[in-house]
Request: fold
Amino acid sequence: MTSHETYLLNRAKLADSHTLEVARADGAYGALRKVFETSMSPEDVVEEVKKSGLRGRGGAGFPTGLKWSFMPNHESDSRTRYMAVNADESEPGTCKDRVLLREDPHCLIEGCLIAAFAMRLDAVYVYVRGEYRLPYDRMQAALDEARAAGILGDNILGSGFSCEIHMHKGAGAYICGEETGLMESLEGKRGHPRPKPPFPASFGLWGQPTTVNNVESIFNVPFILDRGADWFRTLGTESSPGNFLCGISGHVERPGVYEVPLGISARAIVEDLAGGIWKGRSLKAWFPGGSSTGVLPADMLDTPMDHDSVKAAGSMFGTGAMIILDETASVVRSALVLARFYEHESCGQCSQCREGTEWLEQIVDRMLSGQGKAGDVQLLTDLSNGMTPGKTICALSDAAAIPMLAAIKHFRSEFEACIPTTAEALV
Ligand SMILES: Cc1cc2nc3c(=O)[nH]c(=O)nc-3n(C[C@H](O)[C@H](O)[C@H](O)COP(=O)(O)O)c2cc1C
Ligand code: SF4
Reply:
């Protein structure tokens, strides 16, 4: 495999990379200083991030700079402005933000402060998955260090710019990773997603203008400001520039989190980085970007891992978290595991999602326990089609339906094999 330039995880390889001393010696806060010391205006920073083509790493791949530009003009709207950094990371298979928080929290703080300057924010909230104890503690310690060093709070680095960053712990609900569910939860309420519009930029946290970004998205920002949008575009593809963190799990020899350029083939990740399929077995199926993305068969492993290519292959890039199933795995069983997860995590506001997730789970469960009925595969298909696309308040309903539809599309015979024949049913 050809080697590629890395930047996201370079500091993480240093001992005590999470401390201010090590991070600073490695150049941390250099990009923030550059922003303050050159004549860059907040609008220039937004423009640079737009120019870089950075796409959100939280699942939807929305352009980050464009999202920032949706914040209202500060001259005509003087309300308090916030950013929420989404570190809820509860999508099954996804485990990359944890590494960034744990190993290099100062880079995330730097990214938050550059974003805060660019969007003229008053405060940033980092919403961390409750189970992430060490990442949370490291991030909190880094904030304390930064504050003591004059990098956070009032008059940051003597620039005249002030901003606070607060931490918040989640309590184990996947739905609190959905941006409006996250905001409700931060406000101390149940994590029930809000209907959109209004969008967070006009009515976000406590009704104020808010931007929600994923940890990895914000983590890219100091590198873009330090090295420039043109450098960023030398990595990845035209429509998906930069590197991404691929968390790969399941039936591979070396599961883990790897930094790779967008557009790298899925095969290179599986075979070269993750050491191939474990136990000398062969590949059966793979999820390209977390459990909400449609499963793909082995013969599509040459698909490039970027937003457009994975979409063209009939799935989604999602969080770039690959889940690998070997030849012995049951796709129907994996569909049950996921259906159970989504049924458990549905907040229950929308009937398609509340009832649909439960039915999907019950039908696959009965199929696997030998109680399947003729027509069940079609019933799963019809039910899933009733849950997607865009029929509910948030995308959890789609997240449950899409992998089911993909599993049936590519592995229909496996589902059909679960239905007893008439003769078997009579025994
Ligand atoms: C059910 C559900 C769960 C989600 N969980 C997460 C999550 O854990 N982390 C995350 O960054 N985005 C998550 N998202 C996506 C967020 O709603 C939002 O799009 C994202 O945080 C925006 O960040 P980005 O533009 O930087 O990607 C989830 C979405 C849905 C529908
Ligand atoms: S789609 Fe599901 S999780 Fe999302 S708001 Fe509706 S019921 Fe809740």
About this structure: The chain has 17 helices and nine strands. The first strand starts at residue 82 and ends at 87.
